[in-house]
C-alpha cells in the first residue's frame, strides 16, 4: 500500500496533464511509496484520453472519472475516498503548484507533533494577475477575521493532510477553501508552509473574481455557523 496519495482534480486541462504527472513522479520516485490519483470532473476536451494513455508510462497513476461535472471540492473528495495512502497531498491540475514542494511538506510533517493534521501551502510570491492577487488578499483577510483560522492562504491547492481526518470533516461544495477552519473545528492543528507558485502554462482559469465572491459569502456564513455550533468533549475509556 502506498504511504502517500497525490490527488489532482482536473477539468479541461489536457495540455497540463503530462507535464504535471512527470513532475510528480520526478519529485517522489525514490523518496516515498506513492500513487497519483487524477479525478477528471467530466472534462469536455480530451483530458480523459490523455490521462488514460499516460497510465502506460506511469504505473503509479490511477484515473477516476466523474460522469457529470461536480466541482473541485467534490473531485478532491472523490480522490481522497479512492486513495489508499494514509496521507494525502493535493495539487491543482493547472500546473501552478510545484510538486517539488511535496517532499518538503512531508519532511515538515515528520518533524511535527501528531496533533497537526494539515500542512497548508502558502503562496508567498504569487504568479497571478493583479486583480486575482487583490481579490485573494481581500478574501483571505475577511475569512481570517470571521473564522479566526490564522491561515494566510486557504486558496492554495497544494496541501498535505491525513486522509482519516479529512474524511471526518463535514462535506459541502467549495469545502476545500475552508480546510484549515474545518480541521481546527475538529480539534486538530494546522501549519502554513511557504511554497512555490508558478504562472499557468496552458489553458484558462475556471474561476473569476465575481463568482468566487458570491459563493464565498454564503460559504463563510455557513462555516461560521458550523464553528459556533460545534462541541468537543473529552472522553476516557473505563
From TrEMBL:
Coiled coil: none
GO cellular component: plasma membrane
SUPFAM superfamilies in alphabetical order: Nucleotide-diphospho-sugar transferases (SSF53448)
InterPro entries: Glyco_trans_2-like, Glycosyltransferase_2, Nucleotide-diphossugar_trans
GO molecular function terms listed in the Swiss-Prot or TrEMBL record: undecaprenyl-phosphate 4-deoxy-4-formamido-L-arabinose transferase activity
Any Gene Ontology biological process: lipopolysaccharide biosynthetic process
UniProt KW keywords: Cell membrane, Glycosyltransferase, Lipopolysaccharide biosynthesis, Membrane, Transferase, Transmembrane, Transmembrane helix
Pfam families: Glycos_transf_2 (PF00535)
Domain Glycosyltransferase 2-like: 5-166
Protein name: Dolichol-phosphate mannosyltransferase
Organism expressing this protein natively: Dokdonella immobilis
Amino acid at each position: 500500500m502506498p504511504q502517500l496519495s497525490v490527488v489532482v482534480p482536473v477539468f479541461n486541462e489536457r495540455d497540463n496533464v503530462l507535464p504535471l504527472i512527470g513532475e510528480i513522479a520526478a519529485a517522489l520516485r525514490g523518496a516515498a511509496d506513492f500513487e497519483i490519483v487524477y479525478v477528471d470532473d467530466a472534462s469536455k476536451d480530451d483530458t480523459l484520453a490523455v490521462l488514460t494513455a499516460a497510465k502506460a508510462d506511469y504505473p503509479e497513476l490511477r484515473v477516476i472519472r466523474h460522469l457529470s461535472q461536480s466541482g473541485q471540492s467534490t473531485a478532491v473528495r472523490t480522490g481522497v475516498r479512492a486513495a489508499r495512502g494514509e496521507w494525502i497531498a493535493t495539487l491543482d491540475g493547472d500546473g501552478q503548484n510545484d510538486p517539488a514542494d511535496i517532499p518538503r511538506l512531508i519532511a515538515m510533517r515528520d518533524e511535527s507533533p501528531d496533533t497537526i493534521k494539515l500542512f497548508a501551502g502558502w503562496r508567498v510570491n504569487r504568479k497571478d494577475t493583479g486583480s486575482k492577487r487583490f481579490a485573494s488578499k481581500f478574501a483571505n483577510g475577511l475569512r481570517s477575521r470571521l473564522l479566526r483560522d490564522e491561515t494566510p492562504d486557504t486558496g492554495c491547492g497544494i496541501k498535505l493532510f491525513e486522509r482519516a481526518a479529512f474524511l471526518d470533516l463535514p462535506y459541502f461544495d467549495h469545502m476545500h477553501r475552508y480546510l484549515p477552519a474545518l480541521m481546527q473545528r475538529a480539534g486538530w492543528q494546522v501549519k502554513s508552509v511557504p511554497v512555490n507558485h508558478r504562472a499557468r502554462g496552458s489553458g484558462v482559469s475556471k474561476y473569476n473574481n465575481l463568482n468566487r465572491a458570491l459563493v464565498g459569502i454564503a460559504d463563510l456564513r455557513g462555516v461560521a455557523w458550523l464553528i459556533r455550533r460545534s462541541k468537543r468533549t473529552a472522553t476516557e475509556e473505563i
